[in-house]
Amino acid sequence: MNQTTDTLTAGDGGSSGTPAGGPPLAVKDLHVEFRTRAGIAQVVNGVNFHVEAGETLAILGESGCGKSVTAQAIMGILDTPPAAITGGEILYHGTDLLKLSEVKRREVRANQIAMIFQDALSALNPVFTVGFQLAELFRVHRGMSRKDAKAKAVELLDLVKIPAARQRVTDYPHQFSGGMRQRVMIAMALALDPDVLIADEPTTALDVTVQAQIMKLLAELKDERNMGLILITHDMGVVADVADRISVMYAGRIVERANVHDIYAKPSHPYTKALLQAIPRLDQKGEDLSVIKGLPPLLTDIPPGCAFHPRCTFAQDTCKTGEAPPEYAVNASHDSACHFWKDVRGDD
Amino acid sequence: MEMTDVVLETSGLVKHFPLTSGIVFKRKVGAVQAVDGVNLTLNRRETLGVVGESGCGKSTLAKLLVGLERPSAGSITVNGTDLSDLSNEELRRSRRDIQLVMQDPYTSLNPRMTVGDIIGEPFDIHTDVVPKNERQGKVRELIDLVGLNPDHINRYPHQFSGGQRQRIGIARALALRPKIIVCDEPVSALDVSVQAQVMNLLDQLQKELDLSYVFIAHDLSVVRHIADRVAVMYLGKVVEVGTHTEIYEHPTHPYTQALLSAVPVPDPTLRGMRDEIVLEGDVPSPADPPSGCRFRTRCWKAQDICATDEPALENRAERPHLSACHFAEERDVIHAAT
């Protein structure tokens, strides 16, 4: 637990601008379980992170590592049951969201923390126009008249650079292309000026040229509004382009955290290192890719000790039993949950 | 290169899907020009990468190549025989030589069939390939070849992970000992750590079995890794073809350049230093493509001539390779930083 507080204070440069009570969003020792027919799946196992105003934190991991569930827990949109939050705190400027009533929680969801989803077509309601869905936010949460709310909707579509916003406001979601739909999602998330924006794989369903447009737009809007952005993704290329800090997740735990330059230059957890070696790169000629052997563990049956040990090339006997390795401080802003982080870094 | 080295050739390949209107008296009101005049060649033991964004016709091209769709015009030649000359019986036989690996390992395997039945199904259709009593052994051999445990022959697809399912799909494609395999986005549904395993498997099989691949993907990094030659498609047309080096290091078509510059590189030290081309807008509808050059609506180099004259795919620029742009000019997008 001490380590948690260390990392929380370490990167705390923006205390002057933020209201009392610490960073806009901090997650402490979060645990989430799913009760399934195959047993209890431990999806999130003690996750800690925080995000400052105006910074981009990337949460990186493969499918099933618990990154989306963490985001849903923050938003309070987990289906409970089967899911259950079994421990931890989610602090918004120091207030624990998990202790708030559902009514208060809804207010936070509208005004303070917003989320955009991977698949914009299924996240938007197909039977209402885009303009109606945007205006609804202002009518419900700000008590505006229909006319004012509609004007606001047009303004927002303009903000996310949808051409001919005044005409398109009466279109339905299916009349937009994939990239335009994602812009509508962003507009909706930003409508009520949140401090924290969670983007769950915002560009995974999009083509590369459109992905570049959307990431550029998100970065601009984040800077303009001094928001904290949590970017959840599996794409190490996108992360290298936009993130300030990175947390790498594996089997429901954060296994390495550092600023973006450190982690790519000197990965200090075997999983991060192996991931970086396994991606084909556009700027390098193809030779045999190194492979991570085996498969990620079933979350109903996470191996004892370090969850990564069956696939790890550095694993020793100490990794195979007992508790998961603690987060060792590699340096002031770099932590690794590996007993042998020194060997992983190497000095070659 | 001799003629005998070419295993697959398409010439002027066209596939239009008609758009109709009316219920009783259907009228043709237009056509989706999914593939519109594609000329490609594939040499023996070569991997030809086909890249493009969604809607550019790359999956339709895959279906045409393996005979799941009939071309509207143009021809496909496999090992020197033109497929359009063949009778149905001969066509069925020729399909043994060219097989497909599909994109989504979750939907392309029948959930009610065991792995053994899925991989052995090609033998039920092409009954003379393997005698009945040897089929089980052959299937086990195939399962082993793609790196799975032959004892899992009676399991169902849901008992396997995504990467393993894709291996099953590959084993099925290999069953009839094809010479050519068309891979339609074989790794795009997989996680990075598993993606590398499948790509290495494809590489190894190519060397062992003397295969030629048509590798269709939207991910330029993956294609760079595996392909010898690359064709870039946009709205049903090939806009640039060249060797690996020509396309990635000396691209001349603006679309290729934009596509390359948009791919994020996993190296934060290059942030803000790369040659960034962010295209405006979306891909136009293939039912109503722009006149002249189809890319001109999003191109920063477009002039009047681009709207009137369609640029031919011909050798252009200093390092000549095929490029369909009136203003083809080299631009080193990837290495711009260094």
TrEMBL record, chain A:
Alphabetical GO biological process terms: peptide transport
Pfam families: ABC_tran, oligo_HPY
Domain ABC transporter as annotated: residue spans: 27-276
Keyword hit for Protein biosynthesis: no
Renumbered residue ranges of the record's region Disordered: 1-24
One cellular-component annotation, GO: plasma membrane
Molecular function in Gene Ontology: ATP binding; ATP hydrolysis activity
Membrane topology: Peripheral membrane protein
InterPro entries reported in the protein's UniProt record: AAA+_ATPase, ABC_Ni/Peptide_Import, ABC_transporter-like_ATP-bd, ABC_transporter-like_CS, Oligopep_ABC_C, P-loop_NTPase
Cell membrane as UniProt keyword: yes
Superkingdom in the source lineage: Bacteria
Gene3D superfamilies, A to Z: P-loop containing nucleotide triphosphate hydrolases
Biased composition (Gly residues): 11-20
Location (main, coarse): membrane
Compartment list: Cell membrane
Key words of the record: ATP-binding, Cell membrane, Membrane, Nucleotide-binding, Transport
Similarity annotation: Belongs to the ABC transporter superfamily.
Family matches, as NCBIfam families: oligo_HPY
Protein name listed in UniProt: ABC transporter ATP-binding protein
Organism: Nocardioides donggukensis
